[in-house]
């Protein structure tokens, strides 16, 4: 895809409209669900404590092990299974970043596999690797571990790590590594249409965006996921 081939509805259809702030209330989530429907985004991404959310008319994504990833594989699997039981059709799990930085990709694979077993297809599993905090070799290792474990997507970032969010380089590297066999979700710092289109051109097949209305209307947000 290039900037010339993605129109407003197509771009909206690639967005997981996201509300993951710790202070979000039930009313905030209901408002976000209504906004996602009005904008035509692919889904609504929320914290698992906000489920069930029968009011949402778009698919619901729940995060798992968010945002630190410092939960046991068993806890992540249980959290993911509960979210699916409460209506989530997709799970965005955070890896244990320490395992990746130590080069222990077998353990990264094992925890992803545990979550995959808890939420088998057709539920979609995305794996958040915090690409900004990793070397290229570590990004590649995480993508390969995700594929071996049966994930459907690799995802750049939580949007909460101090190292930063998505980058064009990371998305290109992730897309090259998974070779179209998995999707690539770019998230963290995508606040304007230009950035969104650049991420798509780099290989992103899904976007995590909190300021979706501003992005789609061409008004850049100053902050957000």
From TrEMBL:
- Primary site of residence: cytoplasm
The record's SUPFAM superfamilies line, in alphabetical order, gives: Aldolase
Quote the Pfam families the UniProt record gives: DeoC
Q: Which residues form the active site?
A: 92 (proton donor/acceptor), 155 (schiff-base intermediate with acetaldehyde), 185 (proton donor/acceptor)
Localization annotation: Cytoplasm
EC number(s): the record gives 4.1.2.4
Q: Which SMART domains match?
A: DeoC (SM01133)
Q: Which Gene3D superfamilies match?
A: Aldolase class I
Report keywords, A-Z: Cytoplasm, Lyase, Schiff base
Q: What does this protein do?
A: Catalyzes a reversible aldol reaction between acetaldehyde and D-glyceraldehyde 3-phosphate to generate 2-deoxy-D-ribose 5-phosphate.
UniProt xrefs under NCBIfam families: deoC
Q: What is this protein called?
A: Deoxyribose-phosphate aldolase
Species assigned in the record? Paeniglutamicibacter sulfureus
This protein's encoding gene = deoC
